[in-house]
Amino acid sequence: MNERSCLSVILAAGEGTRMKSATPKVLHKIAGLEMLAHVARAVQEAGGGDTALVVGHGADAVTAAAGSFAPRVESFVQAERLGTGHAVLAARAAIARGYDDILVTFGDTPLIARDALRQMRAALAVGADVVVMGFRTERPTGYGRLIEKGDALTAIREEKDCTDEERRITFCNGGAMAIAGAKALSLLDAVGNDNAKGEYYLTDIVEIAAGQGMTVRAIEADFESALGINNRAELAEAEAIWQRRRRRQAMLDGVTMIAPETVFFAHDTVIGADTVLEPNVFFGPGAVIGANVVIHACCHIEEARVEDGAAIGPFARLRPGAEIMTGAKIGNFVEIKKARIEPGAKVPHLSYIGDARIGAKANIGAGTITCNYDGFSKHFTDVEPGAFVGTNSSLVAPVTIGAGAYIASGSVITESVPADALAFGRARQSTREGFGKRLRERLAALKAKK
Ligand code: UD1
Ligand code: MG
Hints:
CATH topology of the largest domain: Spore Coat Polysaccharide Biosynthesis Protein SpsA, Chain A
Bound molecules: uridine-diphosphate-N-acetylglucosamine, magnesium ion
Radius of gyration: 31 Å
CATH superfamily of the largest domain: Spore Coat Polysaccharide Biosynthesis Protein SpsA, Chain A
CATH class of the largest domain: Alpha Beta
Strand content: 25-35%
Helix content: 10-25%
């Protein structure tokens, strides 16, 4: 483990106008998590230490959101967008505290690899002063080119400032940079804005450092680490890459998927081994799925727990607070919200169960609905273990169905039912012999007269 102290500076002052959104660019999500949070997470996993966030456009919203996924983050406002070098200096007060390493990343590169960041810090640890995250591409247009002499990096040239020959270089700047803390401020302060864009380029510290005889290195990262998101098409591309990787990881971890390309994970989905995911399953954030679970086709699951050996779907929706315990069964066209379905209980068809407990081995007939909302408040339904609720029943909460009780089908249950009782909550059936035939004849005669 790297024992050196580290300040991570994440640049997120960009306008992101091409997102055409009221939401600041870095708060758009990949796998249900803000891009900025993906970057913050990668940085933390690389031992990124304290985090300084440089904000500009949508500063308040970005700072507030960052508080939720990186609680110790400090925000610095870059009032004018004068370039990446200028942006890093917005965090001058933090840099001046004196860290061993300064790690600079961009808030709009959500697939940045933790390992690349680790490698950069490792290079600082063995004596480099500046380390650049490079990547190779056959289409380098728009990226800064890495100018090398032997294995030393001598400069980064932005596309607009390149000679024709430099423009042909395919080793590019991925954006992230690691800088020896003791040298960072003097290097950044030496950056000028005499270039095609008139900006203070962070990349210029490479030439400055090399000119002063410092050690400057490039490491090579994968292309995805450098993938900057500027519009929603690129956002979807990054999502697709993220999902592809996650599916593969799930399969390597023992999850069976018949059509992996139709299964979508959230950033925090947890799934146990020997679980089977049939096609078209979507996980929102907060899903924890046990081992030996079957999730049949076309299910939507969010902030829900499914324990070992349970079966879900097809066409089921588990909403926040659903807890499906061991061996329980949730069938087709069933919605569960904030409800615990205890071991071995069954809700097999066409039900809404919300704000409820369904006790162990209870059986909930097709079409049963918990009437949990009176337009003002939510109320609880407690179905005790082993109860049997007949089909097409409405359980008007608050209400308790005692252990082992029976509810006749088609009941509207408005009062609690004691254990082992049989409750009818419907009109008694009346049958009149021969009345059907008489009615038919009368109707036929009426029609004939017209
Ligand atoms: C930058 C690099 C380029 C590299 C490319 C990789 C510089 C000068 N160039 O170019 O070598 O190949 O990234 O994607 O660094 N930002 C601020 N404040 C500013 C300017 C930028 O916070 O004043 C932030 C942006 O929000 C963004 C990041 O810095 O997150 C990069 O800025 P961007 O304008 O995208 O730089 P590129 O031109 O892509
Ligand atoms: Mg960019």
